[in-house]
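Sharing in case it's useful to others searching the archive later.

Someone asked me privately for the predicted structure of Cytochrome c551, so I'm posting the question and my answer publicly. Question first, with the sequence:
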Amino acid sequence: MKKKLLTLLMGTTLVMGLAACGGGSDTSKKSTDTGTKTTTNNTASAGDASKIFSQHCASCHGDNLQGQVGPNLQKVGSKYSKDQILGILKNGKQGGMPAGLISGSDADAIATWLAAKK
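And my answer, the predicted structure tokens:
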């Protein structure tokens, strides 16, 4: 009975944690004057990466990159290059990292920032 309850709680925690990782930053707008669609990408610098991380990643990886549901990222740059981190952000990683939570310049800023964590 205790094993079933523990398994249920762990599964619920994982699902809730993964759901909290999401969040879009689509800034597409339709122009009412010309009838054309204008898309504005979020431009992010490495300085913005900490804020982006807090909004989209900290619920799984911790406020200080210490890990929670997701792994510790404090020294992730010694394991992965910027391009490898971008690949993980784009494609996800088996074992829990969902694909596509962050894209575009936000993903580039996060990958640059994390790759420097050695």
